[in-house]
Amino acid sequence: MSHPGTTSAREPFRERRPQFWQVAKRCCQIAASVDVAFFFLFHLLGSPILAWVNVVSVAMYVVAYRALGRQQNGLAISLIWAEVIIHAGLGIVLIGWEGGFHYYLLMFIPALFVSMRLRAAVIALAGLWSYYVALHLLMWFIEPLQPIAPGALLGVYLFNLSVVFAMFSYLSFFYLTMVTAANRKLRRMATTDSLTGLFNRRHMTYLVEKELARFQRNGNPVAFLVLDIDHFKAINDQYGHELGDRVLEDVAGIIKAQLRTQDLIARWGGEEFLAVLPDTRIQSAQASAERVREALMTHDWRAPNGERIDITISAGVSEFRRDDDLNSAISRADRALYRSKERGRNRVELETV
Ligand SMILES: Nc1nc2c(ncn2[C@@H]2O[C@H](COP(=O)(O)OP(=O)(O)OP(=O)(O)O)[C@@H](O)[C@H]2O)c(=O)[nH]1
User: Fold this and answer.
1) 230 CA closest ligand 1 atom index
2) To 10 degrees, what angle do helices 108-115 and 150-191 make?
3) Considering only CA atoms, which residue is closest to atom 7 of ligand 1?
4) Where does residue 5 rank: exposed (0-12), middle (13-18), buried (19+ CB within 10 A)?
5) Cα distances (angstroms) measured from residue 152 to each of 87, 102, 103
6) Distance CA 68, CA 21 (A)
7) How far is C-alpha 21 from the geometric centre of its chain's CA atoms?
8) Where residue 16 falls among pLDDT bands split at 50, 70, 90?
9) Does residue 43 carry a pLDDT above 90?
10) For the segment 142-155, what is each residue's pLDDT rounded down to a tens digit?
11) I need a surface site. Which of 18, 28, 90, 289 has the fewest CB within 10 A?
């Protein structure tokens, strides 16, 4: 039974792997251009059947290209399949195996796996293999029906080989780019908070643990700031969650702008942020927190109706100690934050002993 959240099993196939359909369009353009070149080439070589086959091929690619534009991917793939299979078959039977038309069939192997479900791809692969082998065996027993001069045959072979090289290179480069981009996106999704772009709690914990290990070795000071927007619930209640989200984004931007590049900043909870400041004593961290607080106060916060809103932040500061772990350092900063709230908010408090 499928769960409401698991969409992929029910997702229409044409909507999956959108990049593949993009590259299929580009392949249609390239293949049609190659076929135009073939039309003239085979006329020159005195092989009119093969020349006119290319006119039909170009027409098929144009229809396939337009079908891809309308998301009729099944139709497009069928046309491309039919074109390559018939064209390669005719090329082989008319001028011989040595013309290199069989290489085009090999280009389908990666495309099969991307464009079909696994079971269908395996069946199509078996069919393709059988067709390839059958054509090879056939040409073992019969002579080409419309042979061309050996020099011309070599020219056609080199042309086909070069086209297949170029197309394979393009496809390989495309897949590499796609996989790299997907990896980058996954890493970003796994490490950052999607609303603010700051580190998420899990990744921050990992980074801070590493920072603290360094501290244990070299003894350089590390300070912790816990910052929490004041009366954020009231902002949500009065102006809506959308504005609340925008405030969170802007607060994150302001915190980032006021701290140094080497400081680690995360969205730690709903409207709570954690900043870890390497090589920083508690007094300097307090000054940084004050800078953030003042920048937030002086920022021109407006509701969609233009009304001015007061946004303030409270902060608690602690400094890492030799016998600390991450939790104990944060909970001292948390207690200081709690005091800021108790003492009227919009203020920075330091940890007490
Ligand atoms: N818009 C928006 N609101 C959020 C998000 N995450 C948490 N919140 C809201 O943040 C509010 C936090 O409220 P409280 O914990 O009561 O704190 P507060 O109103 O800021 O009060 P003090 O911290 O005591 O000043 C809740 O209403 C949450 O719904 C978010 O991603 N977007």
Assistant:
1) 25
2) 30
3) 270
4) exposed
5) 18, 17, 18
6) 7
7) 16
8) low
9) no
10) 999 989 999 999 99
11) 18
Average pLDDT over every residue of 227-238: 96
Residue nearest to atom 6 of ligand 1 (CA): 270
Q: Which two tokens stand for residue 17?
A: 């792997």
Q: Which amino acid is at 200?
A: N
Q: Is the pTM of this model over 0.90?
A: no
83 is catalytic: no
Ligand 1 mutation pick, 194, 233, 238, 250, max ligand atoms within 8 A of CB:
233
Could you tell me the two tokens for 179? Answer: 């996989």
Whether 1 shows a pLDDT value over 60: the answer reads no
Residue bearing tokens 């910052």 = 227
d(CA 295, ligand 1 centre) in Å: 20
Ligand 1 atom closest to residue 234's alpha carbon, by position in its atom list: 19
Domain ranges of the chain: 14-190, 201-350
Residue linked to tokens 């016998």: 323
Q: Which percentage of the chain shows pLDDT scores above 70?
A: 95
Task: Assess whether the C-beta atom of 263 lies below 6 angstroms from ligand 1.
Answer: no
Q: Is the CB of 236 under 6 A from ligand 1?
A: yes
Q: What's the CATH fold of domain 201-350?
A: Alpha-Beta Plaits (3.30.70)
